[in-house]
Request: fold
Amino acid sequence: MILTTTPQIEGSPVLEYKGIVTGETIVGANAFKDFFASIRDIIGGRSGSYEKVLRRAKDTSISEMAERARDLGANAIIGIDIDYETIGERGSMLMVTVSGTAVVI
Reply:
């Protein structure tokens, strides 16, 4: 599965558009509790623990989106967009959403 944020893949024309595919991941309060428990990881204004949680949520969302594209018979996703939002009471949860166009190249 080829994944790209660009609207096309150079040298590979789109043969068929399969539709929009998405992936979503919501990280609950426990992840943030763990983050704050390891706040000592902060070095130079960055937190390794927090970045790890974000990366895992992004990777899960992308994997989910790719699986949906495969189910449609696609072999690539173009125009991928990744969004991060806080949701819940006082922003207690993080939602990562990804979307793109499933295609056959």
